[in-house]
Amino acid sequence: MATPHWLERTALLIGDENIEKLASTRILLVGLGGVGSFAGEFLVRAGVGHLTIIDGDIVDPTNINRQMQALHSTIAQSKATLLHHRFLDINPALQLDYHEKFMEPEDMEALLQNHSFDFVLDCIDSVTPKLTLLRMARKSGTKVISAMGAGGKTDPSRIRIADISQTKECKFAQNVRKRLKKDAGIRNGIIAVFSEEIQPKEALRMTDGKNYKRSFYGTISYMPALFGLTMASEAIRRICGLK
């Protein structure tokens, strides 16, 4: 397969054989907010050839500070649809499936059973649906990279990649670890992207509990993007044997 002209500089760095590997790679990306939108962008620009994206949310004005597809002109539009158009504009040959809904556990299980994904990228920011995806991914034997909490963080140098059992100084990761162990007996085997930076208490705000969230931290523009970049990098380098 000839390397597309737009990927020539990528091929110069990683070789034509890895361009072919990426073109045949199948990735499931769930959650298209600040982390997931940028993770998807970097996967597509690297030449990943098959991508399934899932998010049932629409753009809210509060998303503009950190999400790829969030603009004043896109408020109230589907996050998945917006990225569907953007990603195909980057790579028209991309095999792209998109789902404009929050998937129920049985839908997620069926998706993982009926498709062979090389990686699942979990960019969900609510604990309950996140746990469902992680359990399903482990059950299907699919490799998974999971984003922990990017909120309340400002220092890029504290971002780490480790097995989920080795995460620290992240309350979100602590909660996910505890629930995975209690509900599914899962203690390890999930690649986690997290930050060791301690979150300031004053950055936390409580909610009414809707949409699975009881609270959230303030965010700065670049931290969710860096989490997404790190996740995409980890998947790409593992696929290409660069680790």
Layout of helices and strands:
Elements: H1 8-14, H2 16-24, E1 26-30, H3 34-46, E2 50-54, H4 79-90, E3 95-99, H5 105-114, E4 119-122, H6 127-140, E5 144-147, E6 159-163, H7 171-184, E7 191-195, E8 204-206, E9 215-217, H8 222-239
Parallel strand pairs: 1-2, 1-4, 2-3, 4-5, 5-7
Antiparallel strand pairs: 6-7, 8-9
Helix pairs in contact: 1-2, 3-8, 5-6, 6-7
| Count of runs of 4 or more consecutive helical residues | 8
- Write down the CATH class: Alpha Beta
The appropriate CATH architecture is 3-Layer(aba) Sandwich
Shape, principal axes of CA atoms: globular
CATH topology: Rossmann fold
Strand content: 15-25%
Terminal-residue CA separation: 25 Å
Integer-rounded radius of gyration: 17 Å
Structurally, how many domains make up the residues?
1
Instruction: State mean pLDDT (0 to 100 scale).
Output: 95
Low-confidence stretches: none
Order of helices and strands: HHEHEHEHEHEEHEEEH
Number of strands: 9
Structural class: alpha/beta
- Can you say what the CATH homologous superfamily is? NAD(P)-binding Rossmann-like Domain
